[in-house]
């Protein structure tokens, strides 16, 4: 246990794991999610009865767990757009949120949306097909979004006679991309989602595999260092002035802690002005706190009266973020209408809303080959590019790889108010 964790009462209680799943067509993603829900007893009795009846109607020999999630596929075929489906379940050891995202290239924006808050990405590989372009694309997006942990589930091992040789070959195929993508934590698990091998229970068919099952990994993987506990950042969302006699002089600044561990008595600065003061108290509905950390929502009381409004940021006096108007970022374009170089857009960053111009497109990324395209600089739906923007006023930011909150922005079309881009500051 780190000194940070020992110093933060309640920090160890934050045991919610968010993970996303991705895979090529028919890699067994729906079956895997169904198996996790079924074997962890997260399916209600009436759901199970409906599942059994649906399987019988389809002439299935056994319960088809993929039918738990395949309703999404049917709805897409009817022309209904479902961006991301979130599924919730729990075990005695942890709570889970699954972001179930489509894996096709035309749904890149959906995967970006679903994976943006994930601690872990599960990427399925069909044991018969090995590593495909889509596998690399999914791994690249996970890397781009800074997902700390990636699990390569080699599925359908039952169709290759549970071969250790096949599994090891797929590990070797992926190894070169691990280095290029700068993914620090990659695990490989051989599974059969259909039969249940190594999903929740250890496989009797693969005694050569001595690692954890997928569920055991999900329950035990270390996620407490995934949030930024180093760079103390507090974007102000709302100024609290009760205007009541008993709180005549009360003034505090509400928001969600974006980084670091905060304690009363520390010297702080307020951006953009840079005025320095002392953090006098940390308030909540249930009283004062001795400390605050991400992702708590709290209110800061300061020792001095300073003109502060939404979009300002409270930071340590001796450790300020980057401040600037010329920003380089990787962006995933989310809209059918292509990006307009030189176009004006609304930029939202933490709690601040401002105007911005897209100055230039530096390069596009071919997300199937990971090659840079510096010739075709038009950016359309589902494409990823490095761009440079200029904002109407300075923003206070950290690189996305250090802090996902202060390092991310969204780009909004001024005319339609649609979100058209999601950006990660370099």
Note down, in words, how this protein is organized.
- The chain folds into three domains: 218 residues, P-loop containing nucleotide triphosphate hydrolases (Rossmann fold, 3-Layer(aba) Sandwich); 83 residues, Beta Barrel (Elongation Factor Tu (Ef-tu), domain 3), CATH 2.40.30; 104 residues, Translation factors (Elongation Factor Tu (Ef-tu), domain 3, Beta Barrel).
- It contains eight helices and 21 strands.
- Strands 7, 8, 9, 10, 11, 12, 13 and 14 form an eight-stranded antiparallel β-sheet that branches.
- It is globular, with a radius of gyration of 24 Å.
- The protein starts with a helix and ends with a strand.
- The N terminus is likely disordered.
Topology, element by element:
Elements: H1 3-6, E1 16-23, H2 29-39, H3 45-57, H4 71-77, E2 85-90, E3 95-100, H5 108-115, E4 120-126, H6 133-144, E5 149-155, H7 164-181, E6 185-190, H8 214-220, E7 234-235, E8 238-240, E9 252-256, E10 267-271, E11 275-284, E12 287-289, E13 297-302, E14 313-316, E15 322-333, E16 344-349, E17 352-365, E18 372-373, E19 384-397, E20 408-412, E21 419-425
Parallel strand pairs: 1-3, 1-4, 4-5, 5-6
Antiparallel strand pairs: 2-3, 7-14, 8-9, 9-13, 10-11, 10-14, 11-12, 11-13, 15-19, 15-21, 16-17, 16-20, 17-18, 17-19, 20-21
Query: SSE string, helix = H, strand = E?
Result: HEHHHEEHEHEHEHEEEEEEEEEEEEEEE
Rg over alpha carbons? 24 Å
How many extended strands?
21
How many discrete structural domains? 3
Mean pLDDT: 86
Count of alpha/pi helices:
8
Low-confidence stretches: 1-14, 74-82
CATH class of the largest domain: Alpha Beta
CATH topological fold name of the largest domain = Rossmann fold
In the CATH hierarchy, what is the superfamily of the largest domain?
P-loop containing nucleotide triphosphate hydrolases
